[in-house]
Design goal:
The protein contains 30 helices and 20 strands. The protein is of the alpha/beta class. The strands form four sheets. It has an eight-stranded mixed beta sheet, with helices on both faces.
């Protein structure tokens, strides 16, 4: 395969990794075997006094292990053997007897960072694509080639746990600040600086590591302090994961064990935990999500012949409110395009510009960009009460109030003021795109781009296409959505689209449970225990009860009584209880922060004095209503595949990733079991729970959404 080449220059051995036929360097079985042979040659060559390990790829040092090999593991024993051989190779690298400089440009993740940690010295570039971290827990496993041992010893336990337990990837600048790398340099001089470092090391020089701060020193360097650190980390971890994700807790225990008993004992525990986790269902589902999102990054959004997308250099945003400002801010920050806001008065334009700048300021504060890049990006923002400059736009997104008449007026204005090859999108969350496009002369260039709030945090984008949307329009919207850093799914133009369609029954059922006397706390805790990041009542308050009710009406008009919301929601809105934005909903809010449950809400909605709903039915009613609707919507072709449906649910509404998404979870439960449970719920609570035809067919035939 010849992944490694060696050249010698003035006593310095250059070990160059360039995996043939791959865009990035990965650690495969063959690469490990070749590295072992390369180390033999480096040791045997007496001329070589120090080594520089560098990549031959333009933006990849080592992106980690080959996930395909990891997925192929069939047993704990096989996984244990794999990780032990990897540990032995990394240990050999560390004990080579000749100093090694890791010259890092581009991704340095997982096994790539563990390889670098075994080197004597690390030089990284300030290239924005240089990202360093240990993302293993995001795949349900742990760093098991020494990452849980060497990183805490290098940068301190607290800083290391922050990276390991969250699976963080950090930019090179931050990696340098915390001590993960020793030097930070421009890409152009990486080889020169690495060579000079190797020469110094060959002459006997040894780097002096920066010491951690006094607080870290007090906690990290003594047993009592470390116990405090680990106890605090475990408490915070369980609060975040709810015990659903075993990998972060295993990583914490591996770090703790190694710091107490030594690195060899820590490596033993790393291997044992990895072997257990690698064949666990949670890890397999998280890996499936990884493969699905990776595939979506390459999916143009249309079948058959794929036209070239229109490159977007200039974006128009009509409506400078909260959503419009978020869309414009993310477009500038992520895609670096010119953004032109348009609204009816300059006060709203000013607020929109400030909202977009807030996103840029957040990146500046987190040091994702420097002050010079901030100024450059800020200069790309502008606004007006007219359509000046919209002839330059390649894409225009309307983000105005959810009123069809208003949107019709805006659509007419946009079409009059843009070029014929400009894509026109609506950010509607409820109104069908075909109805919005009724007033334009060229409906083939109109589609929906449904962003989720807040735009800078929510990763999903639904691109909604009608029967008349042209393929070039679809691929252009999908491509630009990815440039904005979004995970994009293509959805057919049906009421509620995908995310709101499957969310509707879930939230409606929460409303019914409230009226039947189940408490707010019980409902929310039931679904956070199930695995959602927040409960449905909290979500209603966050979204806004008026917004949720408007979406519910669209769904009810389209699908009838099974989508009807409760009268209690209407009464809450009439009383001005809109949620967080009004200061009160089902919870009370002070200065925007959620406090306790507002007990007066029970009286407003007419809640029963006490609940007669069995405890186990609370979770079932909400969860199974979503599962049933997901199967029904997939059967109607709302999304193109189970993959898209699951990714949309996970990234759009926080469906528990450890369950794999609603459709994969249905497979896990079995269509027959789900259909039987729904039938029982229908008999107890009403026909809205009747299993949809797709589930009935699957139950009868023993079918699945995914191959077994």
């Amino acid at each position: 395969m010849d992944a490694f080449t060696i050249r010698v220059e003035d006593g310095i051995g250059w070990l160059v990794l360039d995996l043939p036929g791959e865009p990035v360097n990965m650690i495969t079985r063959a690469v490990r075997h070749e590295l072992d042979e390369a180390l033999d040659r480096l040791v045997a060559d007496k001329e070589i006094r120090a080594v520089v390990l560098i990549s031959g790829k333009p933006d990849s040092f080592i992106a980690g292990a080959d996930i395909d090999e990891f997925v192929a593991l069939q047993s704990r024993e096989e996984a244990y053997e794999l990780v032990r051989s990897g540990q032995a190779l990394i240990n050999r690298l560390e004990r080579l007897g000749k100093p090694i400089v890791a010259a890092i440009n581009g991704s340095c993740l997982g096994g790539g960072l563990e390889t670098a940690l075994a080197c004597t010295y690390r030089v990284a570039t300030d290239n924005p694509k240089t990202r360093i971290g240990l993302p293993e827990v995001q795949l349900g496993i742990i760093p098991a080639a020494g990452g849980c041992q060497r990183l805490p010893r290098l940068i301190g336990v607290r800083a290391a746990l922050d990276i390991i337990l969250a699976g963080k990837q950090v930019v090179a600048r931050r990696a340098y600040r915390v001590g993960m790398v020793d030097e930070l340099v421009p890409s152009a001089i990486l080889e020169e600086v690495a060579y000079k470092a190797a020469k110094r090391l060959a002459g006997g020089w040894r780097p002096k590591r920066r010491r951690v701060g006094a607080a870290d020193l007090a906690l990290d360097r003594n047993p009592l302090g470390r116990r405090v650190v680990f106890a605090t980390a475990k408490k915070q971890l369980l609060k975040k994961t709810g015990g659903h994700y075993p990998a972060p807790e295993a990583a914490l225990r591996a770090v703790q064990h190694g710091m107490k008993h030594g690195i060899e004992a820590g490596l033993d525990m790393e291997a044992a935990f990895f072997a257990e986790l690698a064949v666990d269902d949670v890890s397999r589902r998280l890996v499936q999500i990884f493969f699905a999102t990776t595939a979506l990054k390459k999916d143009p959004g249309v079948e058959g012949d794929v036209p070239e997308p229109v490159p977007v250099s200039n974006l128009g945003v009509v409506g400078a409110g909260f959503m419009g400002a978020g869309i414009g801010g993310v477009a500038v920050a992520q895609a670096g395009v010119d953004v032109r806001f348009r609204d009816n008065d300059f006060e709203r334009i000013g607020k929109g510009l400030e909202g977009a700048r807030k996103i840029l300021k957040g990146r500046l504060k987190r040091r994702r960009i420097d002050k010079y890049e901030y100024r450059r990006l800020d200069s790309l923002l502008s606004g007006s009460t007219g359509y000046e400059s919209f002839r330059r736009c390649d894409l225009v997104i309307e983000a105005v109030f959810e009123d069809l008449d208003v949107k019709h007026e805006v659509m007419r204005e946009i079409e009059e003021n843009v070029r014929d090859d400009c894509v026109i999108a609506s950010n509607t969350s409820t109104i069908p795109i075909a109805r919005i496009a009724q007033v334009v002369e060229r409906p083939e260039r109109v589609l929906g781009m449904h962003f989720f709030s807040p735009v800078e945090k929510m990763p999903l984008l639904e691109v909604i296409v009608t029967d008349r949307t042209a393929p070039w329009v679809t691929v252009s919207a999908v491509a630009f959505g990815r440039e904005m850093g979004k995970t994009v799914i293509v959805v057919q133009d049906q009421p509620g689209f995908w995310v709101n369609r499957i969310l509707g029954p879930y939230l409606n059922e929460a409303g019914r449970l409230l009226q039947q006397g189940v408490t707010v706390e019980h409902i929310d805790k039931a679904m956070t225990r199930f695995g959602f990041p927040v409960g449905p009542v909290t979500l209603l308050d966050e979204v806004g009860l008026d917004v949720a009710q408007k979406a519910a009406k669209v769904l009810c008009d389209a699908f009838g009584d099974r989508m009807r919301s409760t009268e209690g929601m209407e009464r809450m809105i009439e009383d001005g209880r809109l949620g967080r934005k009004s200061g009160s909903g089902f919870y009370r809010y002070e200065k925007g922060k959620k406090r306790d449950v507002d007990e007066t809400a029970y009286e407003i909605i007419g809640a029963a004095a006490g609940s007669k709903v069995p405890r186990e039915d609370v979770t079932k009613r909400m969860a199974y209503s979503m599962l049933n609707e997901a199967a029904r919507a997939l059967d109607e072709g709302v999304v193109r595949s189970p993959r898209d449906g699951d990714i949309g649910a996970i990234f759009g509404i926080g469906f528990p990733p450890f369950l794999g998404g609603p459709l994969r979870y249905l497979d896990e439960l079995g269509a027959k079991r789900v259909a039987e449970t729904l039938q029982q719920l229908a008999e107890a609570y009403g026909d809205r729970f009747a299993p949809c035809p797709r589930l009935v067919r699957m139950a009868d035939a023993g079918e699945r959404f995914y191959p077994a």
